[in-house]
Amino acid sequence: MNRLQDKVAIVTGGAAGLGRATVELFAAEGARVSIWDVNAEAGEKLAARLQAAGHDVEYRQVNVGDTAAVADAVAAVKDAFGSVDVLINNAGITRDATLLKMDEAQFDQVVDVNLKGVFNCGQAAARVMVEQGAGAIVNTSSVVALYGNFGQSNYVATKAGVIGMTKVWARELGRKGVRVNAVAPGFIATEMVMAMPEKVRDMMAEKTPLQRLGQPAEIARAYLFLASDEAA
Predict the structure, then answer these.
(1) 3-class SS shares of the chain: helix, strand, coil, % to 5
(2) Burial, 99: exposed, middle or buried (Cβ in 10 Å; 0-12, 13-18, 19+)?
(3) Which of 42, 61, 178, 230 fits 173 for a cystine, CB–CB 3.0-4.6 Å?
């Protein structure tokens, strides 16, 4: 316990799924957490529940695709907590369609959140971390970035892009005291996945060695290690 004691962590897409599990784990490990999500109802509810349990958390409604809004939100977190020690770049969406049916809006929406959003948050947080001389950024990719997935040209492209950006940032920021890593989850039982037809979920489970969907808490533990001093 207390592996993130007094560390200030931003978790994007923090109100549900992997993000919520990460927020809960980080708070339990002593972190002071800023929950970012466009879903105000879910974000405020999560923050209130954790605050009632004695944890130092806040909620901010942030559109990660909005460069200026992200910069302002990072500055506000630093002002409120005194530092930005950890960024979990987790916000992501899907707008699935095959190549011949995908429209421009579907492509642009996914790129705006999953790739530009990761860049926006990473850049704004890195500026603070470099000034501090320390920090940890963990980006969320996906296994589909490695082998593709039917009907997900937009999503797969963004998740492959996240892997590329992570490698670049690790080279650029490591010498400045900032660690950058990525996690590529498989098929996880998030709200987004559980809303899919049962037949599709069964097919996902069959593709995994354990023949089951992963749980959000399992991925959160990977984020915890990479965010903690144990990964330094």
Answers:
(1) 55, 15, 30
(2) exposed
(3) 178
* CA dist 223 → 7, 123, 205 (Å): 14, 19, 22
Q: What residues are paired with 59 via a beta bridge? A: 35
Report, as an integer, the average pLDDT of 85-97: 97
Active-site residue flag, 155: yes
pTM: predicted TM-score of the whole model, two decimal places? 0.95
**Residue from 59, 147, 155, 223 carrying the catalytic annotation:** 155
Domains of the chain: 8-182 (3.40.50.720)
Q: What's the burial of 170, exposed, middle or buried (CB within 10 Å: 0-12/13-18/19+)? A: middle
pLDDT at 163: 99
Distance CA 74, CA 77 (A): 5
The tokens describing 5, both together, are 């004691």
